[in-house]
Amino acid sequence: MFRPTLHAFNKRFAIAVFIGYIGLFSVSFLLMFVFPIGSLAIVVLAIFGLLIVVPVGAGARAWEEGLNRRVMRRGLCPSCGESTVIETSTGVRCLSCGLTHDQRGAIVIVREESDETDATSPPPREQ
Fold first, then answer.
1. 47: Cα separation from own chain's centroid
2. d(CA 49, CA 51)
3. In Å, how far are 89, 110, 113, 120, 127 from 123, measured between CA atoms?
4. How far apart are alpha carbons 90 and 49 in whole angstroms?
5. What's the rounded Cα separation, in Å, for the pair 71 and 79?
6. What CA–CA distance (Å, rounded) separates 10 from 12?
7. pLDDT 10s digit of each residue in the chain, 127 long?
8. Structure confidence at residue 115 (pLDDT)
9. Which has the closest alpha carbon to 104: 75, 74, 63, 76?
């Protein structure tokens, strides 16, 4: 069961990279007063680090979506593994866990339509 591990990695990867870059910015800012060339080196390495980070994130996301498509072809939910899925206009919706996956295998956040509208909800769009 490699898919749950890959899903957890994809879920936390962007925030981990963001926190890492905030840390690099902090160190670079402090080095600016003590060792300016070190600060410049960190900035250059961080920019070139994006050449590694972006493809890793995209590749992991594509890998997870491919695994999800394989599970969806068998009629199972990629998230919980139950066979209580129904086809919808946005993809496949699981009746057990309530998640919707699009045709690529990515999780889609679907806003539930209700009969009552409150003051905070926007008016429905006309089609």
1. 22
2. 5
3. 21, 17, 12, 9, 13
4. 36
5. 9
6. 6
7. 688 889 899 999 999 999 999 999 999 999 999 999 999 999 999 999 999 999 999 999 999 988 888 888 888 888 787 787 887 777 788 888 888 888 888 887 766 655 454 555 566 666 5
8. 47
9. 63
Alpha-carbon gap, residue 90 to 108, rounded angstroms: 8
Report the residue count for the chain: 127
Q: What is the DSSP letter of 116?
A: -
The C-alpha angle with vertex 81 and arms to 80 and 84, in degrees rounded to 5, equals 95
Relative to beta strand 85-87, strand 92-94 is antiparallel
Residue-level pLDDT at 121: 57
Residue type, 51: L
Are residues 86 and 93 in contact, defined by beta-carbon separation less than 8 angstroms?
yes
Strands 100-101 and 107-108, how do they pair? Answer: antiparallel
Instruction: Report pLDDT for 18.
Output: 96
CB 74 within 8 A of CB 83: no
Question: 77, 118 in Cβ contact below 8 A?
Answer: no
β pairing state of 100-101 and 85-87: unpaired
